[in-house]
Amino acid sequence: MDTRRKPVTRSPVQLAALVVGAVFLLVGVLGFIPGITTHYHALAVAGPGSGALLLGVFQVSILHNVVHLLFGVAGILLARTWAGARGYLIVGGVIYLLLWVYGLLIGHHSPANFVPVNMADNWLHLFLGLGMVALGFLLTRDRVTASR
Fold first, then answer.
1. CA–CA separation, 20 vs 4, rounded Å?
2. Cα 125 from Cα 82, distance rounded (Å)
3. pLDDT (tens digit, 0 to 9) for every residue of the chain, 148 residues total?
4. Geometric angle at alpha carbon 118, from 132 and 47, rounded to 5°
5. Count of beta carbons in the 10 Å neighbourhood of residue 5
6. Is the whole-model pTM more than 0.85?
7. I want to staple 52 with a disulfide (CB 3.0 to 4.6 A). Which of 19, 43, 59, 141 is the partner?
8. What angle do CA 100, 141, 135 make, to 5 degrees?
């Protein structure tokens, strides 16, 4: 009986989703580490009153960190299949683009800023959204075109 495992082969889109998911998971964990998150004593559950800043720049809260953790787990799980990875990158990217628009429209000190986000988060959400959508489409265009 051969007990050796076959090596796992991932498509480029699956690898991208796995990496993006792992980064989100890491960011979620880092948001709970004092020092990496400055003003950690001001970390609130949610809302614009959270004064904690990941890397001294990005406003975070417990809710914000948990969202990063969940988004990371989703990416890792969805990276198991080609379709799941593609969907994660495209739909996740659209979610981040919507979050960018939301961050631009709300007042950063208003109760509507429940995540919370600041201007640095807004720009990061724009680039994340564009990057994820681009990866989702560009890394799968050959397979989508070939199936037509």
1. 29
2. 24
3. 666 776 668 999 999 999 999 999 999 999 999 999 999 999 999 999 999 999 999 999 999 999 999 999 999 999 999 999 999 999 999 999 999 999 999 988 899 999 899 999 999 999 999 999 999 999 998 875 555 4
4. 105
5. 6
6. yes
7. 43
8. 30
